[in-house]
Amino acid sequence: MSRMGDVLAGFHAAWEFESDSVLIRYERGLRTPKLFQALGERRVPYRAIAGATLTPGRRGTVVLRLELRPGADPLLTAAAGQLKEGSDPYRLVLPAERETLAEYYRDEVRDRLTEDPSAAEDFLVGAPEVPLQFKAYDGKASFDGKIVHFRWFWTGASSAKWKAGDQSFPVSELSGVEWRSPELFEGHLRLLRRDAAQAQPAQADQDPAAVVFGLGYGPVHESLPFAAAVLEAVRRAGPVTAAPAGAPRRDPADIAERIRHLGELHQAGLVTDEEFAGKKAELLAEL
C-alpha cells in the first residue's frame, strides 16, 4: 500500500488497509445489517485472502469484495454458503463515483496476495469473542470458550430433550458444528461429537446436542457468531474426526407431521410454492 492506514468508507462499513491486513469496521445504526453490528470489526490478514473483485452494484453503486481462502474464516466456514448477499461481511458497497478509488484499492490488495489461494489449514481470521449466548426455540445456548451449555425451555423442547436433561459439551468432545440458517426451513445449530460411535438423531428437535430455531429465535446475528466461536475452539482443541456418515431413516409418522407443519407454513405465506414442493420432496425421499 502507498500509505499505512488508508481508509475506504462505504455503506455500513469502513475498510482500513494496513501493511499486513485489512481492518473492517462496521457501522452501528438502524440501516446496518444486524450481523455487521454484532461482529463490530474483522481483521483480515492478506494471507487469508484469495482475491479481490469490483463489480457494478444496484442503484448507482459499485461493490468491492474480498474473496477469502476456503477454511480461513470460522464465520464463513460455519455459514457454509448460507449467508444472503446483503449479509456478506466482506462486501463493501460504494457510490459509483468512487469506482476509480475502489479499483485502486482492489489492485493494491491483489498485489499483496502471495499465498496459495487453496484451502487454509488453519483459521486465519479471528472468531467472535466469547462469552456468547442466544435463545433458540427450544432452549438457551451459551458458550464460555470451553464448554457449550444447552438449557431447555419447557414450552419448546421435545420430550426427548427433557428426558435427556440440560446438556454441557466440552469442546474437547466435539468434532464440529452444523449450522442451518434460521432463514431456511428447519434451521438449527447442532454440535457434532468426536465419538463417531455415538449416533445422533437425524431430527434436530430430537437431538440433545442441537437447538432448533424458529420465528424470532436463533437469528443469524446471534447464532452464526456463536457457531463460529465454537468451531474455532474445536479446531484449537486438536485434530477433528469426521462426522458420522449416513443419517438414519426417519419415522413415517414424523415425516407426516413435518409435512403437515410445512403445509401450515405454506398456507400462512411463510413458505413459497417452490420451497414447499422442494422440501416436501426431500421429506418424502427420507421414507
Automatic annotation (TrEMBL):
Coiled coil: none
SHOCT domain residues: 257-284
Domain DUF4429 residue range list: 15-110, 141-230
Transmembrane region(s): none
Protein name stated in the entry: DUF4429 domain-containing protein
Native species: Streptomyces nigra
